[in-house]
Amino acid sequence: MNMTSSPPAPPDTWVACLERLSSELPEVVLKSWLNPLQAHVQGGVLHLFAPNTFVMEEVRENHLDRIRELAAHFGALEDVELKIGSLPPQTQTTAPSTTSLPNPALKVAEEPLESNLDNYFTFDNFVEGRSNSMARAAALLAAQNPGSRQNNPVLLFGGTGLGKTHLMVAAGNLIRQNNPKARVLYLRADDFFNRFFRALQEDYTNKNSMARDRFKRSFTKVDALLIDDVHLLAEKPSTQEEFFHTFNTLFDNKRQIILTSDRYPREIDKLEPRLRSRMSNGLAVAIDPPDFETRAQIILAKARERNATIPEEVVMMLAKRMQSNVRELEGAFNTLMAHANLMGKPITIEFANDTLRDLFRSQQAVINIPNIQKVVSEHYNLQLRIMLSSSRKRTIARARQMAMALARELTDRSLPEIGEAFGRDHSTVMNAIKVISELRETDAATHADWEKLTRKLTE
Question: Whole-structure pTM over 0.85, yes or no?
């Protein structure tokens, strides 16, 4: 090919293709799938580099044929090749919106990063028990070997106040302790949404602001991304789309991702299937409410932090009365310590009962479905998520029916509300009530269980 018939410079060919495609495709398609591509022309072929397999497969399936037509039209190019990878900085020809990353693991970018990590949260001051030992092990594994495919992403899920955030941030702190150059970013899911929304607003106000592209780059430069309460993205489809691409870029570049949620991904309504799949394909571990022994250890650990002495009988009383979650247990302990310090009195069982009387009364007054589920699952020695699963194994189904019947007996919740709490419909609840009612009359073990559970929930 002579000089007069040689193709135009690579940027011209690819930019011309993008300009034409922008008139044919929605903006979200262009930004999500085509802008991330990097382009280079060599030997009459347009080489396109995708940042990850998801982008590559989407482009190959839905856009590659049209790109070939446009490349032949604008650059007289013979073919287009699509692959995963990135170009050296001096040969990149993409728009600034690309989210490609170099492959080397942990490195430092030039600009500073506010990690948002609380240095208080460490593995050393996390009280381990039967309910959280697997979650602690998963978080520790991710911190010690960040980016490994065997533990990426790590998802910690369970109810509020059980220690998910503590473990997540402890992992981030350990990553930075092991590698001070590591860029670790912790955010709540609603903070991720707010940043994304502000970027969209800025781009809408100023067409040349490139705020969304800066948003992309700010996340894909980190070595570990920690997102708390990811279930809050469930009703935000555009933010889920952005988080999906951020997730893929980090995962493909072996950056660690740690997430927390109040539910397992499959149980989160209005979460996109592809994001649900990505979140479930790593190491997903549940945290259950702490058992009696763990609650007692938590109180003792808090007392040691304050160099305080607390009688064993007070420890046992708090562990027995404050069953719902770690946060409320710590709140009761802090209230007790504050009153003792202000009044200059020693902590005795009488002082504790008097100080926390209103708190204990409110605990007794509020018999709610989550507490019934927890107490019943502990009684039958089942993990809560197992009892609430779809398993039809007789022992699991009987425990689930017992919890439903108790919820009807001890709360003012309607049948549909109870069914929703158990992931069932109201007819299933009606059947559970009928089964347990009949067994209470004919089966001594069921009758004894009912009486024992009723006393435990109402005492």
Answer: no
